[in-house]
Amino acid sequence: MNNNDVILKSEGISKSYRMGATRVEVLKGLDLAVKRGEFVAIIGASGSGKSTLLHILGALDSPDSGVISFEGKDLARQSSRALNRFRNKMVGFVFQFYHLLDELSVLENVSLPAMASRSVLGWFGARRSVNARAEELLTRFGLGERIKHKPYQLSGGERQRVAIARALMNEPRLLLADEPTGNLDSEAGNGIIDVLDELNKAGQTIVMVTHDDRIAQRAGRIITLADGRIKT
Amino acid sequence: MYKLILATRYLLKRRMTYFAVLAVALCVFIVVVVMTVMTGLVGDFKEKNHRFAGDCVVASESLVGFAYYEDFVKKLEGSEFVDSVSEVIKSYALLSPRGRDVSRGVEIMGVDPVKHSRATGFGDTLYYRKNDVSKAFVPSYDVNLPGCVLGIDLALQRDSNSRYAYDSSPGHVGFAVSCFPLTARGALVLGTAPVNTKTFYYSDHSQSGLARVDDSLIYLPFDEAQALCGMDGGAKRINAIHIKFKSDVKLGVGCDEVRRLWELFKGEKADESQAYLLDAVTVQSWLVHRRSLIAAMEKEETMMGAMFGFVGIVVVFIVLVVFYMLISHKSKDIGVLRSVGASSIDIIELFAGFAAMVGLIGSCFGVLGGWQFLLRINKIEGWLFERFGYQVWDRTMFAIGDIPSKISPKVLAVIVVSAVAACLIGALVPSWQAVRLKPVETLQVNQL
Question: What pLDDT is stored for residue B292 in this prediction?
């Protein structure tokens, strides 16, 4: 594998949690490399550490040991400011329960990452282009008529598409999706996978966690987690 | 920008924040009303005391007074910083309405009405002779009789509404004033009688707004009072000199200058036979001279301030509870914001902005409500009195007219800033808690 092709690499990742008096080792020295433009599905039984791995890859959590490097840079060596910027610009998160902000409209939810990276003055300067980008994404995902709606006025599938649009707002190099279809019926779930597939075909790197083999089959590569390690 | 939008939406969409706004508004309302009334009362009381005393008072602590005052008055009148000077005889006497066998102890002040009006606010306190103070001691019903100015509560009765029942002219009433004349050494003057008594006729009354003054003080013509007190023989004596400084002279500077002149004067008179009387004389600003009265009011004001400090603590606690509940409900939002790159400072700014909004809006409502209430406070009190016979301050006991209702911009600014600060302090702990939340924990399925 050419090093230049690798966008994300983890080496010897370990993570454990304390549960009462015992310590549970979730990840045990896990190695993983994701190439640019790849669509990787991580599958495994419930509690196998899939979501924990995804959060660590996206710098929402930190490993007990091991190295995560994104485009060759060790995330552990980055300042908290650089990590905030990393989460804002480099990765987009899609969660199982959408995690849209109830107080914001669909358009505002999608614009959130762009707002987070700008000051009030900066926002007024870029407002038109940001809104245009958010509307373009929403139209692309069939939600052009829903921009003024509130999340609670949308169906599950629609909410997840809004969440994907939000994740793509700042054109991140890596999309991390945690059980994106886990809370949807089969039809809506297929719709979401179609969207991810389409994005991947357009060059988007995607790492998706799922417990559903059928959904995982749509990815280019499947990694199975078992007992805190990648099952070969 | 999202911080502003989210803070505004939290404020508008979350019903519990209405309670925080309401709590702030109520506290600000109460503080504005009470502090305005209290500050007004204290300010009014100070102003009345200032009007009563002038700017500076040179006074003897002894009833026998001090001599050689004419020379010192000349020095003062020749000074550039002095506007006017009034010599005063001050003593105690028995007052008996003529034809009645009753008497009561009163304080007497012998003054030249014109000079005393220039040095103090005496002229403004008169009723019939306000426009011609030179006739303050001239009864309108007989200009040949010696007049006296009575404290208003000695002269007039109050009606059922606690208002004075004024007459169009002073009643023809005489008062026998009896004094014990004292020598410079403090002994009774040996004469035909141990007590000097003279009858004065009610020529006017004085309403200073100071309960103790209006209830127990009578003003007499200077020469008459000096004679009554036995201070007119040999080296004439007085008890005090009230001084008004020119408008551009600062109080402290003026008093220091009078003190300097007094020390010089004392040196000059050191060899005089009654020089020992000058040692009991003090030079004080009106604030120090009236300190015993003003200090009590100021203490009350400080205590009110402290009590409302506790009200501020209640606001902090209410805001803390509301924010704690809100942040508990919004932990998912914090996780989402962190996942799109928001920093810890951004989260603190979001909730601090929200707290500031709660404080500002609550303060605005509180100030508006307080202002409207204060505009009507005297009407409301009047209505309560007419309807239920209730008065906040019984006017027969408290020498106040209207309840003060003039809002001080300075007090208002302090209250609003304090309210916003209280909200920010209340939001501090929950915000800090929010920052410490791990995004991963807030986004977990079991947190939803």
Answer: 83
Query: Would you state the structure tokens that stand for residue B274, as one six-digit string?
Result: 């009654």
Helix (H, G, I), strand (E, B), or coil: what is residue A217?
A: coil
Residues B384, B316 contacting (CB under 8 angstroms): no
How far is B253 from chain A, CA to nearest CA, in Å?
Answer: 53
- A158 — contact with chain B (CB < 8 Å)? no
Tokens, residue B344: 């810890």
B6-61 tens-digit pLDDT: 888 888 887 888 888 998 898 889 888 888 888 888 888 899 999 999 999 999 98
Asked if B335 is an interface residue toward chain A (Cβ–Cβ < 8 A), one would say yes
How confident is the model over B442-447, as a mean pLDDT? 62
Q: For residue range A89-105, what is the model confidence (pLDDT) as tens digits? A: 999 999 888 889 988 99
Distance (Å, rounded) from C-alpha A101 to C-alpha B174?
A: 86
For residue A1, which amino acid is it? M
Chain A touched by B356 (CB under 8 Å): no
pTM of the model: 0.72
A126 to chain B: closest CA residue: B1
Whether residue A2 is predicted with pLDDT greater than 60 in this model: the reply is no
CA separation for the pair B340, B295 (Å, rounded): 60
With an 8 Å Cβ cutoff, are A87 and B338 in contact? yes
pLDDT on residue B107: 94
- How does pLDDT run across B228-265, given as a tens digit for each residue? 998 888 889 999 999 999 999 999 999 999 999 999 99
Cα dihedral B265→B268→B273→B275 (10° resolution): 40
- Rounded to an integer, what is the distance from CA A216 to the centroid of its chain? 15
Cβ–Cβ gap A55/B440 under 8 Å? yes
CB–CB of B72/B58 below 8 Å?
yes
Three-state SS at A203: coil
- Provide the b/e sequence for B421-444 (b: ≥16 CB within 10 Å): bbbbbbbbebbebbbebebbebbe
Contact at 8 Å (CB) between B50 and B335?
no
Residues paired with residue B66 on neighbouring β-strands, in sequence order: B238
Q: How confident is the model at residue B447 (pLDDT cuts 50, 70, 90)?
A: very low
User: To which H or E segment does residue A175 belong?
Assistant: strand A174-178
Among A16, A11, A12, A58, which residue's Cα sits nearest to residue A205? A58
Over chain A, what is the mean pLDDT? 88
